Amino acid sequence: MHPRRGRSAIVGIGEVPTGRFPERTAIEGALQAAQQAIADAGLRRSDIDYVMPTGTLFSFQFGNELATARLVEELGLPHVSSNCQVFSGGSSSTNALRVASALVETGRARCVLFVHTDKLGTGVTAQGGIDLFSTAGISAEWEVPFGQHYSTVAALATTRYQHETGCTDEELSAVCVSNRKWAELNPHAFFRTPLTIAEVMQSKMLSTPLRAKQSNMLFDGAGAFVVTAAERARDLVQRPAYVLGEGGAVTHFVYSQEPDLTRFGWAAAAREAFAEAGLAPADIDVAEIYDSYPIYQLIAFEELGLCGRGEAGGLFLRGETWPGGRIPCTTDGGMLSKGHIGAGGSVSLLIEAARQLMGKAGARQVPGARFAVETATGGTYFDAQVTILGTEIP
Amino acid sequence: MSSPPAAPPRPRPVVNAWSRPFWDAAREQKLLLQRCGDCRAWIFYPRIACPRCGSDQLGWQPASGRGTIYSFTVVRSNAPSAFAPLLPYVVAVIRLEEGVQMLSNVVDCNPDKLRCDQPVEVVFRPLDDEFTLPCFRPQAGSGSQS
Fold first, then answer.
1. B104/A147 Cβ within 8 A
2. A173, A275: one domain
3. Is residue A53 part of a domain?
4. Which domains does chain B have, with CATH numbers?
5. Does B133 touch chain A (CB under 8 A)?
6. Residue A56 scores a pLDDT above 90
């Protein structure tokens, strides 16, 4: 058995609704989510000994005032020995979980509180969001001068993927419809009205072939989770979400240096994660796949081995990823329907993966979910991070 | 009614000292690439050491200026503010004959007729007095000249 398999677990989760909340400051969102996560784990405030927020893309105050210690003080945590920020853009959640797991497995920490917060919905205008994301993670020397931004980043992958696989615009749009089906069931999601493929395909063209309703929208949001060692987790909660396997690959910084825009590093990351977990893709009950644009959900689905190359679009079109489907995917609605909250995009997915395994997903609960896979990536998809969680240790 | 705010100036490259020869050559309408003196790898973008073998024996050589479109997109709306006046414009990943990739704009073309793997050649577009961007246009006979 792999020495790291199942040695740590997520035992508590917290989250505030995603949307436009001008009155809710970044720190308020963080504090609410953190309180929920501590209570959800059945912990006392004195049990938390390590606090680990992400960085923020827009809420500069949260980063500049070094909110790591502010969280400790505002929450009244009396026994925190250390605090640090873990930040890798959209993959911050997975990378933080990896750091937190290492801390609790080695005894360096007992209970790590991870928190994300940002205000991309009301802290920045729509055009300001486009401008922010025409520099965040994009090379100032080699790409910004050519008008690269996140729509073109996604469109470049989509064009090449469609060229190589024959994936249709209808299949891409089906990803948005699938995620919306789940968002309809999620009270924390921003977009909850039904969506059709025709509506997606008729929405405004941004950067060919990418359309407006195939793009995420930016919102305010916050989330938190608590990580502890597996032996402690069993005493705390009925159904911990054990960390069974983690894998990753960093494949570029400058987007145009990516060797394969139709694959990225997912296959290698998934092999590592599945091997550590002792599981195969067929064992997965629920897939929480990073979905800032539909192309990335399709590529990750295939590269993780959940289906063959060029087959993912068909799965989404046929409803196999919808509620009640064979392989439920991105069950909180994802960034395409719940809303993109910056570095918290994958925080939401990781929390949702744990929520499904803990049996706390309410109307969108996947019955009997035992094993979940979550993916995360930062910047212009510069890394591929794969986490496998489970209610039991194989 | 107030008129919409003027677009900010186009962003200039934020240049590292070791890539200055690339930009100086581009201003003279030449495409230079780094090449490793030890393993002979062509290198783009410019580095302080060869990303393949780690050698710091790097020199500069003229590139052919020819390549193919690995992928592309036609920006129709929602561009960064500085690029709004340029709509529509084409962003593409170009694979040069030397085996390296770079982001650029495809110009002098009918954007609706571009395709993946289409042959292109370098053409230089001044940004200001200091910077000229290496852009690309379809090679003659490749089917999408304007």
1. no
2. yes
3. yes
4. 16-63 (no CATH), 64-140 (2.40.50)
5. yes
6. no
Domain-embedded: residue A131: no
pLDDT at position A344:
82
pLDDT (0 to 100) of residue A186: 98
**Chain B residues touching residue A257 (CB < 8 angstroms):** 45, 101
CATH number of the domain that A62 lies in? Answer: 3.40.47.10
Contacts of A166 in chain B (CB under 8 A): none
- Cα–Cα distance measured from residue A100 to residue A334, given in angstroms and rounded to the nearest whole number: 24
CA pair distance A383, B11, nearest whole angstrom: 26
Residue B137 CB neighbour total at 10 angstroms? 18
Beta bridge partners of A292: none
Number of domains observed in the structure of chain A: 2
Q: Is residue A2 part of a domain?
A: no
- Domain termination site, one of A236, A263, A280: A236
**Mind listing the pLDDT tens digit for each residue in A92-122?**
999 999 999 999 999 999 999 999 999 988 8
CB-CB contact of A212 with A206 (8 Å): yes
- The predicted model scores a pTM of 0.96
Domain membership of residue A133 (yes or no) is no
**Type of residue found at A121:** G
Best probe of the B interface among A134, A159, A250, A262, by most B CBs < 10 A, is A159
Residues 99 through 128 of chain B touching chain A, CB cutoff 8 Å: 101-105, 115-117, 127
Instruction: Give the closest-approach CA distance of A143 to chain B in angstroms.
Output: 6
| Percent helix, strand and coil across chain B, each to the nearest 5 | 15, 35, 50
Residue B2 in this model has a pLDDT that exceeds 60: no
By three-state DSSP, how is residue A9 classified?
strand
**Pair (A167, A299) in one structural domain:** yes
Strand partners, B133: B125
pLDDT digits (tens, 9 = 90+) for A203-261: 999 999 999 999 999 999 999 999 999 999 999 999 999 999 999 999 999 999 999 99
Measured in degrees and rounded to the nearest 5, phi and psi for residue A285 equal -95, -30
For the record, the structure tokens of A196 come out as 């059709």
B1 and chain A in contact, CB less than 8 A: no
C-alpha dist (Å) from residue B131 to A155, A284, B18, B22: 27, 52, 16, 10
B142 contact A CB<8A: no
Cα separation, A305 vs A327, whole angstroms: 12
Please, are residues A265 and A299 in contact by the beta-carbon 8 Å criterion?
Answer: no
Q: What is the ipTM of this complex?
A: 0.95
Residues 6+ positions from A282 with CB-CB distance below 8 Å: none
Domain extent for A95: 8-124+219-236
- pLDDT digits over A265-296, tens only? 999 999 999 999 999 999 999 999 999 999 99
